[in-house]
Structure formats: structure tokens, C-alpha cells
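Notes to self after the Tuesday call (sharing in case useful).
The group wants a holo model before anyone commits to mutagenesis around the pocket. I volunteered. Ligand is BJW. Logging inputs and output together so the record is complete.
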Amino acid sequence: MHNFDAKLLALLRGASRVAILTGAGISAESGLPTFRGPGGWWRNYRAEDLATPEAFERDPQLVWEWYRHRRAQVQQHLPNAGHTALAEMQRRAGHLTLITQCVDRYHQQAGARGVIELHGNLIESRCLQCGAQTEGATEIWREGLPYCACGGLRRPAVVWFGESLPGAALQQAFRAAEECDIFFSIGTSALVYPAAHLPHLARDAGAAIVEINPEKTPLTPQAHWFLQGRAGEILPGLVQAFS
Ligand code: BJW
Ligand code: ZN
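Result:
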């Protein structure tokens, strides 16, 4: 079990508002690949070929092949001890906002509520013609591409590079960061903006910053606590502090 600093535990017990930002690393122990780490997607593919609007215009079949594969992976695996611990922490803490860059919906599946999805989700798709956003079950597949009932082509309901994040979600996330006493950055390389701004906003507003990651990131020098290790191993112990 991880040995936590007494000062950190006291701070957690006294905190009235907690904000948590998660990234692909939170789902790594579920068996989902991350983007940038060893075994990550960007080790074998170029982000520009899969996660940009230009890639989708150029080769929608290829992009959909990747997202179908990832949907299947999400269905084949389950939330892990890290997701469960965060949901439990939310039940115990006075006020805990969970902000995620993940598109797998594992936080919600583990019981977390009011999750702010900054980069959309894998489950839904959006019609390029009528704008309707619905779950995959309503897609009409033809030659490797999903269509809407209106006939329009559908795209994954995620946020690609160069696209703006959903405005309401981003606003809620900024606010949670500015108002919290403690901000956790968990399982994210802290490289992709504007999500990567959040811990800095929180820090500037006076919050304590706690980072959980097996590797150092550009955020690490700014973190008040760097808990080096896997989220699924560290978080279950940390839950005890919230009671
Ligand atoms: C563990 C673990 C375990 C392992 N336990 N941890 C130059 C400067 C600044 C900004 C820009 C710039 N050029 C372009 C930009 C903007 C760009 C950006 O930030 N680029 C940077 C890469 C430089 N951002 C955008 O384009 C965003 N939009 C935007 O800014 O709009 C305004 C605008 C419009 C037009 C022009 C310019 C600006 C949109 C970003 C969208 C990101 N989309 C993706 C795909 C989403 C859909 C999908 O899933 O398919 O989001 S890319 C990918 O990266 C995904 C992730 O959410 C995101 C972040 O990655 P994450 O989650 O941090 O994962 P990894 O793999 O990077 O890290 C995993 C971490 O876990 C590692 O640290 C491991 O060590 C750790 N880990 N096991 C705990 N067990
Ligand atoms: Zn439509």
C-alpha cells in the first residue's frame, strides 16, 4: 500500500471542494491503450492520420475502423480499481467534480456522477447533415461507414485536434478548477490543451495540486505532491482519507 504524507491526508480531510482531471492512464489498467506511452496509439499511428477533421475528410473509412476497434475494446474490458475508487471518493467527499479526457465512459460505468467529458465519448456519433447526436445503435452501416436516418454521414462524437471543446463542459471544468481546494491530475500526460491548463488555473487560484502518474510530466514540477505509480494501486488507499 502507498504511504501517504500526513499533510496531504489532513488537507484531503479538510477540503470542501475537490476537482479531478483524468486522462487515458486511468483506463490503462483496464487494458485500454493510452495515446503517448509505451504501447500507446501514437507509437504506431500518426495522430494526424486518425484524430483530426482532415483525416476524417481524407479517409473516413480508416478513421471509423479505428473508432469501431476502440468501441469493441471498451466493451471487452471493464472499469478498474482506480475508477471505482474515484466514484467512492465522490460519494464520500463533500463536493467532488470529475473532469475527464477519456471517451470510454468507464467513470460513469463505475458509478461516478456528473462527469464532465472534455473530449466527447466513443459511444455516440453525430450526423454531419442534421447534427443529431445519438448512440451507435441508431447508426446505419453501409460499406464501412455509419449513416443517419436522414441519410447524412455520421462522425464519432469526440473532439479531434484543431476542434474546439464543448463549450459548456469546458466552462464547468474551468470553474471547478478555479473553485477547488485540491486538484488531482491523474493518468494524463498533461500535454494536450486546453485540458492541460486546468491544473495551472487551480494552482493560480490557490489550490493544492496532486499528480498521480507512473511517469513525470510537464506538470510535475508544479505539483505540490507527485504520487508516482499506477492510479489503480494508489487511489484505493487514498479513498480512506475521505470519510
Ligand atoms: C498512468 C497509468 C496508470 C499510464 N495510472 N497513469 C501548440 C501549443 C499548444 C497547443 C496547441 C499547439 N498546437 C496545437 C495545439 C492545440 C491542441 C494541442 O493541445 N496540441 C498539443 C499536443 C500541442 N489542442 C487541440 O487541438 C484541442 N482543441 C483546441 O485547442 O481548440 C482550439 C483551437 C482550435 C483550432 C486551432 C487551435 C486551437 C483539441 C484536443 C483534442 C484531443 N483529442 C484526443 C482524441 C480524442 C478522441 C479519442 O479519444 O479518439 O484526445 S488526442 C488524445 O490526447 C485524446 C486524449 O484525451 C488527449 C490527452 O491524452 P491523455 O489522456 O493525457 O493520454 P496520454 O496517452 O497522453 O497520457 C497517458 C498518461 O497516463 C501518461 O502520462 C502515462 O504515464 C500515464 N499512465 N499508465 C496512471 N496505470
Ligand atoms: Zn442526420
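Two things stood out.
Residues 60-76 form the longest helix (17 residues).
The chain has a mean pLDDT of 96.
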